[in-house]
Design a protein that fits this description.
It is built from 13 helices and 10 strands. The protein is of the alpha/beta class and 257 residues long. The structure holds acetoacetyl-coenzyme A.
């Protein structure tokens, strides 16, 4: 089996590199299966607190693999549970994930970035949902996550015209958190991931779950979820440690408990 992704562990940070450079990291079943298996492994590893997913300088990912799906029938897609079967592992992953996007993030590549919790972009990054040009629609969450990220009119513009959006435009629109020169992107993403991973893992998981409620439900339910999760955080040893360390003017020693 080819290494469609490369997994590196750097102390508390896992780095996943999408690794199909010959096709601009087009996302096929083998790659998504391997990504899912890597996420399973990282989820089970208590020492890892944050994940960075990146591609090459030229491409984060140019979308779902068009050659692989070009001849799919409806039954192939439906019975094979296309997308849901393996792409959604990222959605259920509970630790924070940073996408470090250089080059193109198109179609499923843009959708993969949007499944991550934070998107950093290189100044050469370009985002888009060009499925309309192929006679289909975004199918890995693009029609749902893009409007939530950039608003309806820009999402409609991108999906209906298939045009690409620069890193600057994506940052202004709220899709991208930070932009860096391409040669600094990965270092900066790893530095941010190290900072995130230095905190209490259960608190990071509670935070991720709570912020995601803002996208997945009505305001009052989200506020209630947040309040109850805040209350639950007082059961953590790390909350006792974090606040005691502040009062005693020392660095906290989190134990992920
Ligand atoms: N699937 C399969 N192969 C792809 C691919 C994709 N999504 N994108 C690029 N490739 C392949 C090309 O076929 C080419 O292979 P060969 O060298 O064997 O010909 C190689 O990658 C390099 O690509 P180009 O020669 O086209 O490179 P370029 O620099 O001229 O253009 C590009 C780059 C603008 C990204 C262009 O490759 C492109 O438009 N790609 C397709 C983008 C796209 O439509 N993505 C959406 C896919 S559908 C989807 O994702 C559905 C969903 O929601 C899940």
């Amino acid at each position: 089996m080819n290494d469609e992704i490369l997994l590196e562990l750097h102390d508390k940070v896992a780095l996943i590199r999408l690794n199909r450079p010959q096709v601009l990291n087009a996302l096929n079943d083998a790659l998504m299966d391997q990504l899912g298996a890597a996420l399973d492994k990282i989820e089970a590893d208590e020492t890892i607190g944050c994940v960075v997913i990146t591609g090459s300088e030229k491409a984060f990912a140019a979308g779902a693999d068009i050659s692989a799906m070009a001849t799919y029938s409806y039954m192939d897609a439906y019975k094979g549970d296309f997308i849901t079967r393996n792409w959604e592992r990222l959605k259920t992953f509970r630790k924070p994930v940073i996408a470090a996007v250089s080059g193109v993030a198109l179609g499923g590549g843009c959708e993969l970035a949007m499944m991550c919790d934070i998107v950093f972009a290189a100044d050469n990054a370009r985002f888009g949902q060009p499925e309309v040009k192929l006679g289909t629609i975004p199918g890995a969450g693009g029609t749902q996550r893009l409007p939530r990220a950039v608003g309806k009119t820009k999402a409609m513009d991108l999906c209906l015209t298939g045009r690409l959006m620069s890193a600057d435009e994506a940052e202004r629109a709220g899709l991208v958190a930070r932009i860096y020169p391409a040669d600094q992107l990965l270092d900066e993403a790893m530095a941010a991931a190290r900072q995130v991973a230095s905190y209490s893992l259960p608190v990071l998981m509670m935070l991720k779950e709570s912020v995601n409620r803002a996208f997945e439900g009505p305001l009052n339910e989200g506020l209630l979820f947040e309040r109850r999760t805040l209350h639950a955080s007082f059961a953590l040893a790390d909350q006792k440690e974090g606040m005691a360390a502040f009062v005693e003017k020392r660095k906290p020693n989190f134990t992920n408990r």
